[in-house]
Amino acid sequence: MLYGAVQGVGFRPFVYRLATELKLTGWVLNSAQGVFIEVEGAKEQLEEFLRRLERDKPPRAFLQSLEASWLDPVGYPAFEIRHSEESGQKTAFILPDIATCPECLREIFDPTDRRYRYPFTNCTHCGPRFSIIEALPYDRPNTTMKKFPMCSDCQAEYQDPTHRRFHAQPNACPTCGPHLELWDSKGNVLAQHDNALRQTAEAIRTGQIVAVKGLGGFHLICDARNDDAVQELRRRKHREEKPFALLYPSLELVRAHCEVSALEERLLTSPEAPIVLLRRRKSVQIASSVAPHNPYLGIMLPYTPLHHLLMKELGFPVVATSGNLSDEPICTDEHEALERLNKIADLFLVHNRPIARHVDDSIVRIVGGRELVMRRARGFAPLPIRIKTEDSQSKTVLAVGAHLKNTIALAVGSNVFLSQHIGDLETAEAFGAFQRVIQDFERLYDAQPSVIAHDLHPDYLSTQYAQGRKPRTVGVQHHYAHVLACMAENELDSSVLGVSWDGTGYGLDGTIWGGEFLRATRESFTRVAHLRTFRLPGGERAIQEPRRSALGVLYELFGDALTDECADLAPIQSFSQNELKLLLAMLQKNLNSPVTSSAGRLFDAVASLVGLRQIGRFEGQAAMELEFALGSIETDETYEFDLLQELLDWEAMLRSLIGDVRAGVAVGKIAAKFHNTLVEMIVAVARRVGEERVVLTGGCFQNKYLTERAIARLREAGFRVYWHQRVPPNDGGIALGQIVKALIFRPSSGG
Ligand code: ZN
Ligand code: ZN
Ligand code: FE
Q1: Which of 255, 257, 652, 723 could be disulfide-bonded to 696 (CB atoms 3.0-4.6 Å)?
Q2: pTM of the full structure
Q3: Radius of gyration over alpha carbons of the chain, in Å?
Q4: Ligand minimally distant from the alpha carbon of residue 734
Q5: Same domain, 615 and 658
Q6: Are strands 318-322 and 218-223 parallel, antiparallel or unpaired?
Q7: Which ligand has the shortest distance to the CA of 480?
């Protein structure tokens, strides 16, 4: 299915001709919420269809945004143009921000054009939308462009139905529109207009860190080749090792530095222009501190005229990371930036077009031959996810998500508006942003929720927020919400086996779940299997210290004998005598040592046991490094494991794995055998449960190797496999799952 907004005429007949030429069946439909296309056929033809839709579309038609997802075939006999759906509120449709179109790009580099080097150039085909809208309907007075009255030239374009800028709400030019200023850290103006841009480029060239006000917030930018600058940025931002995103001047340079497939190229240059995770080539001239111990680089191309102009000036890649301190929300206002980013940035490149709401860069990775959105924000939000509903036409539901990588969602009728990425609700700033986004969505869509869905974890700020509000609340189990989210975006409504693997989620029994197999429908679920549990000495701290997970696992296997039997192992050696004594006492007395079935923590334990990482610098690092350790190893070898009733026991696996470690088997080989074993565990449970449809969800399925091998092996075994596409497999997708549960929630039937 394709989903997007198309402007211009002759689009549906074009789609019809293209589909029939490629022998695809299905339909195209114009509705108030955009254009929907469903096409069915061979995968190659479908991919060709996607490519040619963009390439060969009628000259006056423009795909402002496009979301594609792969669904089960329905068996359409032919291709047809369906009658327009008149239902649905027109006002409910807000477009995401759209990357600069080729025509605008040509203008800003044309010395004879009146918009030559103008950083706020846009048209109906491109430019800011979600980040400038203050209210609906989408008209200039309802955007942050209201303070810029159009000059007569711009006004003429705006009123000319044959012009590309006809009703382009953010239309502007150097005469009438916003302009740039370069400020020092006290807010003194150092330069204006094009001089501000040129001086910014000079500052970056000489190793300085500049806060740049972009589309949905500030970036912190520095020369990605300059290790001193990058390390300084890490130090000032309190960000030790988490990879930085990069902004490249051109696709050619991206190709020179990374392997880029046709699909990845399409993503990089798409209207969404997300950060794409690309495998880096050897000996790339990028500072090693950009993405330490990481074979991937997160790369995007310029997506506003400002970024195009700056990158043209520079000609080399820059770090472009969110303008914030550690995990706080991205900064959007220049005066706020002066305060919050004062100790981080040397200079501030700002402009006077206000940002209505924060929108981070989206992150996408290719998994299983198609895109997997890992962070859904710019370019995607707030396009709705359509879900099948029966009696919910008038029901408005709010879902507040989980705790990490928070997003919220608002369901109005069958449209679910999933918010842009908000972040980890760890700081007062993040919690403030969370509340602002909720208010913002309720106001934009003029919707007052009658039900609020939340996670079951009593300590999550999101849970407490939900319970503090008036409407009826419904708690949704974390891993079930993951499964429902994946079912919703794949439009599944029959029963499935949900493989829901992540780091942490509050279980029905009050323990920490995370290695779950749920037989699920949209109404309910049963936990049909789970990974064997172990204890986490010191609780939450284990998230930062993989060696604590390892200790918990070893204690489960060896008990008190571990001090003798495991003394040679990396995690044990990494603790001081006192630490070890203390943690063992916790385990022995069962103090502050919560029980978990988490797959994520099992990854941590193994990363620690093989000596990869004892202490993590950011969430999920150890598991990522275990995936990276695979390198290009190809092996089908596995370890033994046991499946006893509902219990998936990893004891045999870990005993052999420890044997491999002692025998000096290469870390990559051990990592591969571990991944392969997890996949065989999934297949074994799937065989036992016998559901035809298997859904892979939860943060662990950001792991490309695990996901792709699970898909392949499950298919070989005759199952139909579903995973995420447009909605993150991590906790960024939880709100969508909560919505699904709340929509069918009836007060009389209880939670
Ligand atoms: Zn344009
Ligand atoms: Zn103008
Ligand atoms: Fe989760």
Answers
A1: 723
A2: 0.92
A3: 26
A4: 3
A5: yes
A6: antiparallel
A7: 3
pLDDT at 388 over 80: no
Q: How far is the CA of 129 from the centre of ligand 1 (A)?
A: 12
For ligand 3, the distance from its centroid to the CA atom of residue 698, given in whole angstroms, is: 5
User: Any idea what the CATH number is for the domain that residue 278 is in?
Assistant: 3.90.870.40
User: Are residues 36 and 129 both part of a single domain?
Assistant: no
Q: Which residue has the tokens 């099992």?
A: 602
E-state strands within 440-575: 451-455, 472-476, 496-506, 512-520, 525-531, 534-535
pLDDT in tens, 409-445: 999 888 899 999 999 999 999 999 999 999 999 999 8
Nearest-ligand number for the alpha carbon of 505: 3
pLDDT at residue 487, as a whole number: 97
Q: Please report which ligand is nearest the Cα atom of 104.
A: 1
The tally of domains found in the chain comes to 4
- Looking at the predicted structure, is the pLDDT value of residue 366 above 60? yes
- Kindly give the distance from the C-alpha atom of residue 305 to the centroid of ligand 1, in angstroms, as a whole number: 10
CB 719 within 8 A of CB 685: no
pLDDT in tens, 100-130: 999 999 999 999 999 999 999 999 889 999 9
One domain for residues 698 and 626: yes
Kindly state the tokens that stand for 172: 């502007």
Specify the CATH number for the domain of residue 18. 3.30.70.100
Q: Which two tokens stand for residue 18?
A: 């293209």
- The predicted-structure confidence for 631-650, as pLDDT tens digits, reads as follows 989 999 999 999 999 999 99
Report CA(111)–ligand 3 centroid distance (Å).
52
Using the mean position of ligand 2's atoms as its centre, give its distance from the Cα of residue 155 in Å: 7
How far does residue 489's CA lie from ligand 1's centre (Å)? 31
Tokens linked to 140 = 């200039």
Least confident of 68-72, 187-191, 675-679, 707-711: 68-72
Report if residue 478 sits inside a domain: no
Q: Quick one: tokens of 512?
A: 């920490």
Please report whether residue 88 resides in a domain.
Answer: no
Same domain, 55 and 196: no
Backbone angles phi, psi at 546, to 5 degrees: -50, -30
The pLDDT assigned to 241 comes to 93
Ligand 2 center to 304 CA (angstroms): 18
d(CA 601, CA 536) in angstroms, rounded, equals: 9
Give the ligand whose atoms come closest to the C-alpha of residue 729: 3
Ligand index nearest the alpha carbon of residue 500: 3
Q: Which residues surround ligand 2, an ion (CB under 5 A)?
A: 151, 154, 173, 175-176
Task: Supply 667's token pair.
Answer: 């870390």
Q: What is the pLDDT of residue 90?
A: 45
pLDDT value, residue 16:
87
Confidence class for position 91, pLDDT limits 50, 70, 90: very low
Residues 221 and 113 in one domain: no
Considering every ligand atom, which ligand is closest to the CA of 107?
A: 1
Q: Which of 363, 381, 410 is the last residue of a domain?
A: 363
User: CATH no. for residue 614?
Assistant: 3.30.420.40
Residues 40 and 123 in one domain: no
Residue showing tokens 């004879």: 112
Q: In this structure, is residue 480 part of a structural domain?
A: no
Cα(139) to ligand 1 centroid in Å equals 17
Q: What are the phi and psi torsion angles at 523 (to 5°)?
A: -90, -40
Ligand nearest to the CA of residue 98, numbered in listed order: 1
Kindly give the distance from the C-alpha atom of residue 173 to the centroid of ligand 2, in angstroms, as a whole number.
4
Same domain, 64 and 108: no
> Which residues, by Cβ under 5 Å, contact ligand 1, an ion?
101, 104, 123, 125-126
- Looking at residue 31, what is its pLDDT? 65
What pLDDT score does 167 carry? Answer: 87
Q: Residue 470's pLDDT band (boundaries 50, 70, 90)?
A: confident
Output the CA 213–ligand 2 centroid distance in Å: 21
Kindly identify the ligand whose nearest atom is closest to the C-alpha of 483: 3
The parent domain of residue 149 ranges over 102-154
Distance CA 563, CA 572 (A): 8
Sheet with strand 62-68: strands edge to edge: 62-68, 2-7, 34-40, 25-31, 79-81
- On whether both 581 and 692 belong to a single domain, the answer is yes
Whether 95 is covered by a domain: the verdict is no
* CA 337 – ligand 3 centroid, Å: 32
